[in-house]
Amino acid sequence: MRIGQGFDAHRFAAGRRLVLGGVSIDHPLGMAAHSDGDVVIHALCDALLGAAGLGDIGRHFPDTDPAWEGADSRKLLHHVCSLLAERSLAVVNVDLTVIAQQPKLAPHFAAMRANLAADLDVEQTRVNLKATTTEGMGFTGRAEGIAASAVVLLREQAHP
Ligand code: MG
């Protein structure tokens, strides 16, 4: 077994889409980022890379690389999953926490869970999403941005 954890945060910006867990959320502000700014997927990718001993998301998808400008973060996740598959690593479960004062995220969790389970090729029961505010404290509490943390467990599959 291998464990990994990841964390990401992005600032709110006008004129950007808000995409979390691959779901477009109707909100006046989106995330400032080189890619689509999906903090949930970025934290998840970092956790997966960490568990696999493969560094971090910045190493694999540098924000200076035009190939990832405005990128759908699910493409990043697919790439990370291919790196795991090459190493015979499979996801046991993932646990994700989104830290945001706004918007309300619970109504979007079913769609986010379905996306992530499909991308990770696991049953939805192996993907858990939680949301919390910080009760008005700090950058998330002031609604300056959204943060996400992820913990994942991988198992090493037996070679055929
Ligand atoms: Mg990020």
Structural notes for this entry:
The protein is an alpha+beta fold. The protein has five helices and seven strands, in the order ββββαααβαβαβ. It has helices at residues 39-52, 57-60, 73-86, 109-120, 138-141, and strands spanning 2-14, 18-20, 23-25, 29-31, 89-99, 127-132, 145-156. A five-stranded mixed β-sheet has the order 4-1-7-5-6. A two-stranded antiparallel ribbon has the order 2-3. Helix 1 runs parallel beside helix 3 (73-86). It is globular and about 50 Å long. 39% of the residues are buried. The model has no long low-confidence stretch (mean pLDDT 95). The structure holds magnesium ion. Magnesium ion binds at residues 8, 10, 33, 39, 42.
Label this structure with key terms.
five-stranded mixed sheet; 160 residues; alpha+beta; 30% helix; two-stranded antiparallel ribbon; binds magnesium ion
Short description:
With 160 residues, this protein is α+β, with helices and mostly antiparallel strands. It contains five helices and seven strands.
Low-confidence stretches: none
Number-wise, the strands total: 7
C-alpha Rg, in Å? 15 Å
Largest sheet: 5 strands, mixed
Main-sheet strand order equals 4-1-7-5-6
Principal-axes shape call = globular
Q: What is the count of helical runs? A: 5
The average pLDDT score comes to 95
Q: Give the helix level as a range of percent.
A: 25-40%
β-sheet strand percentage: 25-35%
The H-and-E topology, N to C, reads as: EEEEHHHEHEHE
Distance between the termini: 18 Å
**From the helix content, strand content and strand pairing, which structural class follows?**
alpha+beta
The ligands bound in this entry are:
magnesium ion
